[in-house]
């Protein structure tokens, strides 16, 4: 895992973000970056690829890029590739959550079972598996679960105790409640809007509170943590804290912004909110 493979945020501003993913520099939209960039336009223009949403989503490539390549984010190797929506296959702001969870389980002294919902390409799954957790990785998109499995292989975790599940989150949780299956920790990063495996509709405004209630029903009697993150505008740290505080019993709760630290001279980038609950199982 050499520095040449690593991720870095080079600059932000004027509604854009300039990032290095391993060997390639990408210029993508970033609505919250309303300030002025630190770098000159001539430096931004050297990006290998530029994504725009004007006249439809599209990439403009200034030099040929491979279909996919490896980038190291938060000590984890990811297979990244430009997608039609401008995503790359990893959200670097989630490193904060991986680090928080690693600290939360430190010193517990027993093997933990963790449920990762809306699990995307597996960052939290792999961070937890690396420190010895058994993980249930769930996403409604089979392509994303397959992508996460490739990331597991890339990190030498192909044989780690990970259950790979393609399912609708709500339906899965209801079945787990009936089965009596319980987890020591839960990670969830719900979208603003999504579809389940059979086109079940998820809207964060309508469904998040119910979903959190189901999460607490599948926790063990002495759970260790719940980590909730969100990128939906208006869902501030205090909003997420309020949601969890209405469901959690005991434990401790903290909330804040997910932030990506930038290269020297550039401004850090706020990228969503989180609320992290530590349960009695941590004691």
Detailed description of the structure:
The strands form 4 sheets. A 7-stranded mixed β-sheet has the order 10-9-8-11-14-16-15, with helices on both faces. A 5-stranded mixed β-sheet has the order 1-2-3-4-5, with no helix packed on it. It has a two-stranded antiparallel sheet with strand order 6-7. The mean pLDDT is 94. With 283 residues, it is of the alpha/beta class. It starts with 6 loop residues before the first strand and ends in a 5-residue tail after the last strand. It has 7 helices and 16 strands. The radius of gyration is 19 Å and the shape is globular. It has 2 domains: 3-80, Golgi alpha-mannosidase II (Immunoglobulin-like, Sandwich); 92-282, Rossmann fold. The longest helix has 14 residues, at 204-217.
Summary of the model, kept short:
It is built from seven helices and 16 strands. It has helices spanning 41-44, 95-105, 123-130, 142-154, 169-179, 204-217, 237-245; strands spanning 7-13, 16-21, 24-29, 49-52, 58-61, 69-73, 76-80, 113-117, 134-139, 162-166, 185-188, 193-195, 201-203, 225-230, 252-260, 269-278. The strands form four sheets. A seven-stranded mixed beta sheet has the order 10-9-8-11-14-16-15, with helices on both faces.
